[in-house]
Amino acid sequence: MKLLKSGMSRRRVLQTGMAGIIGSGVAPMMFTKGAWAQEFCNNPTGDTVTLGLNLPLTGAYAEEGADEQKAYELAIAHLNGEGDGGLINVLTPSALKGNGILGKKVGFVTSDSQTKSDVARAGATRMIERDGAIMITGGSSSGEAIAVQGLCQEMGVIFMAGLTHSNDTTGKDKRRYGFRHFFNAYQSGTALGPVLSEAYGTDRRAYHLTADYTWGWTQEESIKNTTEGLGWDTVEAVRTPLGAGDFSQFLTPVLNSGADVLILNHYGNDMVNSLTQAVQFGMRDRQANGKDFQIVVPLFSELMAKGAGENIKGIYGTSNWHWNLQDPGSIAFTKSFGAAYGSPPSQAAHTCYVQTLLYADAVERAGTFYPPEVIKALEGHEFDGMGNGRTLYRAEDHQCMKSVLVVQGNDAPTSEYDVLNVVQEVQRDTVDYDASIFGGELGPAEPAPVCA
Amino acid sequence: MFEVIFLQFLNGLDKGAAYALIALGLTLVFGTLGVVNFAHGALFMLGAFCAVMFRQFLTLETVTIDPTQTSPWGAPLEIRTPLVQAWFGDFGAVLVNYSVPFSILITIPIMLLVGIALERGIIKHFYKRPHAEQILVTFGLAIVAQEVIKSIFGPNPIPQPMPTDLRGAADIGSWIGFQANVITYPLWRLIYFLFSVIIIGGVFAFLQFTTFGMVVRAGMADRETVGLLGINIDRRFTIMFGLAAVVAGMAGVMYTPLLPPNYHLGMDFLVLSFVVVVVGGMGSLPGAVAAGFLLGILQSFASMTQIKAIVPGIDQIIIYLVAVVILLVRPRGLMGRRGVMEN
C-alpha cells in the first residue's frame, strides 16, 4: 500500500504489466513476422545444407536408382563449384553461383527405398527427422513418389520427385510441396498416338499387360484412350504384380487372344523380363489377323533397353530425355556425366540432376530456404537450357510442361549405349493439357509445418 | 479353346519343373538327414551365379584406351577385345554362345563341394536339435549367402543370354497336327522341362538301382539298423546333401536365361518350394515331384483371364489355398508317410 501511495497506483501497475506483456510477447509476432516464418522444418543454421536422396538401390527399379545416385552426386558437386559446372553453365535464367546454396555447402544423405512405397516413406521420415534434410528427392516409381510427397506435405519439406510417370503424381495426388520434372502417362499417349497410327495403321487389336500400381493403371488408361481414339480395339488389359519376374503365365493367354499388338505397361526390370519373355514366346515373329504382331512399350528408358538387348530393336515408346540429343544442355550434361562415370546418363539421371539444380536455383531466387517462399519461386517458373527446350513449372499442378520424345529401339546400335533412336520430338504445346482434368488439390503452403 | 488350355498346361509344366527340382533337393535333405533346410533356395541361387561367373570369365576383355578419341559422352574411347575369342577363335565364340549349358560342368563340382562343406561344417551339429533351430540356422545361412553374392555381383539382375540357336519359339502345334503358329512355346522352356525330367529321373534311378542308393534308402527308413550293420551311413548322407546341392545348383543354372538372376532369387523360390514339399508330403520324393508339377499347372491355369474373371486374384493365392486344403484334409501331404510331420 505504501508503494502505491508513493506513486504506483493499481491502474499504473496494470498499465505497466500490460505494456510489458505486449512488449515481450505479442508485438514481436506482429512486427517481426519474418523472424517467425524462418522457424521451419530443418532450417539450416550452420554452413552446410543437407539434401535427402531417396533412391531405389534395390528392387525392380534398381538400375535407375544407381544412375540417379550418380546424377545427384554430380549435381551436388556442380552446386558446390566442383567439376565443369555441367548444366549450371547453360540454365537460363539462373541464380546459381557455384558456391553451394545461399553460400552453404551442399551435403547429402541417402536411403535405399527398395522400390517400395512404405520403405521410401520410412526412409524419407528418417532423413528429415534424424539427418535434418531440407529437401527430399529421388525415386523411380510413382508409388514411392506419391507416398513421399504426401509425407513431405505433412512435414513441411519440399519434395523434388525423381522418375515418376503416373498421371496421379501431379493429378489426383498432387501436393503443394511436391514438384515433378518428368513427363507423365497422358503425355506419353498424346505423343505416341500419331506415330503408332502411321506405323501400324488404325485397325489393330491391343492386349495390355500392366504393372499393378498407380503408374501402371494411369498409363494403361492413357494409352487405351489414345489407341481407342485411333480406332484400335482393346482385347484385354491384365494386371501383373510389380516384380513378378516370370511373366510366362500372363504371356501365354496373349498368343491366341486375337490381339495383334502387345502393350507392355511395365518399367525397369519388369519391362526387361516381360519384353524378353514375350520375344522368347515368338511374339515378334508372329502373324495375327493377317498382320505382323507388334509390341509397344509406352515408357522406355536406355537402361531398360540395354538390359533387354536386341529384343528392343524396332519397338516404339516415349522418353523424357535422351543423351544423344544435340541441344547445348543435353551435350553439356552428357559430357559432364560421361567424363565422371564413363557412360552416358539415363533419363532417370537427367531428371534427378535437373530437379536438384531447379531446387537450388529456386532457393537462390527466393533468398531463403523457407519452403513456402521456395514453392512460390518454383510455381510458374519458366526456364531453358536443361535439354527439354523451353520448360514451364506449371503452378496449377507442379507439372513441368516441356517437349516429349518418341523413341524406337535402334536396329543398328554402334555401342551398348546406342540403343534408342529419337523418332520425333513432340513439342510442348502438343502435349499440353488442362491441369484440372486429373482433379486433386495442391493443399496449402502456409503455415509451413514444423517437423520437430 | 483347346490351344489356350494346352498352352497353359505347357506353362504349368515348365513352372512346375522349377518347383519340382528345388522341392526334390529339399526332400532329399529332409528324408535323409531329417533337416529342414531353409538354405536350399540359396543353393539354387548359388548355382545360377555359377553360370554368371562362368560367363563373366568367358567374356573377359582387354581394355585399351585410345587417348586420341573420345566417346560421344565425353569419356576416352575404350577399345575392348574379348580374350576367349582371341585365344580360341570360333571355338571361343561357341563357348560364349553356349555358356549357360557349359557352366553346368563347373557347377557340379562347385555345388558338391559347397553342399559337403555346409553339411560337415554346420548342419551336422543340428541333426538332433529341434526343427525350429534347424530352420533358424539354415535361414541364417541363406541370408549370409545372399549378402555375399550381393557384395560380389551387386543388387541388380544379370541377364544370361540363351544360345542363339535355342532362342525363339517351337511350333508344337504343327508337330501334333495343328496349323502352323497356333501352338508355339519358347524352346528354352521346353528344354528346361526336359532337363528337369532327366534330372528327376536320374535321381530316382540313382536311388533305386545303385547299391549306394539302396543303402541310402535303407538309412532313410531305419538309420540305426543300417549303422549297426557296419555301414558308414553318415558319410553317405553327407554325399546326399552334396547331391541335393548339385540338383538345386543345376536347376538354378538352367533357369538363368528365363529369369536374370539376382541375389534374391533363392528367397523368391524358397517359400513356394516349401509349400510344394508340404503338399507333396515331407520326405516323399515322388510326392515332391508330383506336387511341384501339380501346383505349377494350377498356378498357370489360375492366371487365365476366364478364371480370374470368376475369382479375381486367384493366381496369386492358388498355391497357398491348395496347401491349406491339403493340410486340413490330409496333414501328411499327398504322398507323405504316416506319422511324418503330422503332429
TrEMBL record, chain A:
Keywords: Amino-acid transport, Signal, Transport. The keyword Repeat does not apply. Signal peptide: none annotated. The keyword Transport applies. Pfam families: Peripla_BP_6. Belongs to the leucine-binding protein family. This is ABC transporter substrate-binding protein. Residues 48-410 form the Leucine-binding protein domain. It comes from Devosia marina. The lineage of its organism: Bacteria, Pseudomonadati, Pseudomonadota, Alphaproteobacteria, Hyphomicrobiales. PANTHER family: LEUCINE-SPECIFIC-BINDING PROTEIN, PERIPLASMIC BINDING PROTEIN OF ABC TRANSPORTER FOR NATURAL AMINO ACIDS. GO terms for biological process: amino acid transport.
From TrEMBL, chain B:
It comes from the Bacteria. Pfam families: BPD_transp_2. GO terms for cellular component: plasma membrane. It is found in: Cell membrane. The chain crosses the membrane at residues 16-35, 102-123, 190-216, 237-258, 270-297, 309-329. It is a multi-pass membrane protein. One of its GO terms (molecular function) is transmembrane transporter activity. Belongs to the binding-protein-dependent transport system permease family. LivHM subfamily. This is Branched-chain amino acid ABC transporter permease. It comes from Devosia marina. The lineage of its organism: Bacteria, Pseudomonadati, Pseudomonadota, Alphaproteobacteria, Hyphomicrobiales.
